[in-house]
């Protein structure tokens, strides 16, 4: 029988992490600085490349923290319980995701489009009820959304795989389980799970700095700056615009 970390053990290691680990902010800003200096590609290409690399840097930072306190995620392929939470992103992130999907191979892009069409046909009415809730005012919006058992629009429920895994947003990328995987099946919002969503500050800070620079240069490509940074909504609403 496999031994898993207890809730107390996980908390203890997270406390050690707070005391002993410092996020390497410079790595986030180096990414956008390097692309800002690139002269051979378009602004759109610079932005999308920065987006991909910053997302990867978030994942790299999590790996470094795990190594620091000897934490190993028990999340496994095919486990998708966390894919039933509401995901909130700003307009800029939504546009980045859409642009990235547009650059996928045609067959993959078509698969996602067909999937989204079926998804909104199936869940459209329920989503209207769920997303009318003001996520900035309702403290229970995550729990109530989770109770609905409506999956993420990018989750293939037949395989339990994300259709756009490499561009999954920060809430998806930073939600981890380090104990018995069954806690996610047995509880809608298990207390044992950990969120590294605080890394959003470094990720968004670097993107925002890049957009400020581009704004001053007079070219922010497909981003409406600063409006897209400050407009937040459910991911299901952003992706519905593609239908």
Automatic annotation (TrEMBL):
Q: Which domain of life is it from?
A: Bacteria
Keywords (A to Z) from UniProt: Coiled coil
Q: Which residue spans adopt a coiled-coil conformation according to this UniProt entry?
A: 7-68
The record's annotation in InterPro entries points to: Puta_zinc/iron-chelating_dom
What name has this protein been given in UniProt? YkgJ family cysteine cluster protein
Species source reads Ornithinibacillus caprae
């Amino acid at each position: 029988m496999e031994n898993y970390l207890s809730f107390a053990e996980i908390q203890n290691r997270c406390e050690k992490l707070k005391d002993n680990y410092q996020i390497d902010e410079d790595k986030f800003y180096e990414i956008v600085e390097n692309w800002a200096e690139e002269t051979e590609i378009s602004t759109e290409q610079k932005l999308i490349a920065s987006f991909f690399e910053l997302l990867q840097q978030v994942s790299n930072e999590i790996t470094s923290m795990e190594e620091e306190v000897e934490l190993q995620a028990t999340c496994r392929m095919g486990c998708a319980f966390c894919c039933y939470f509401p995901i909130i992103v700003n307009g800029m992130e939504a546009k980045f995701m859409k642009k990235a999907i547009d650059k996928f191979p045609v067959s993959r892009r078509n698969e996602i489009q067909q999937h989204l069409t079926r998804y909104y046909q199936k869940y459209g009415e329920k989503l209207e009820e769920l997303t009318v809730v003001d996520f900035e005012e309702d403290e229970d919006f995550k729990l109530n959304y989770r109770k609905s058992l409506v999956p993420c629009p990018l989750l293939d429920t037949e395989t339990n795989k994300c259709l756009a895994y490499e561009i999954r947003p920060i809430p998806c990328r930073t939600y981890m389980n380090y104990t018995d995987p069954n806690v996610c099946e047995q509880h809608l919002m298990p207390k044992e799970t950990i969120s590294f969503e605080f890394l959003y500050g470094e990720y968004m800070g670097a993107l925002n700095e890049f957009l400020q620079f581009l704004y001053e240069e007079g070219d922010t490509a497909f981003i409406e700056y600063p409006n897209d940074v400050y407009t937040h909504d459910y991911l299901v609403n952003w992706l519905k615009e593609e239908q």
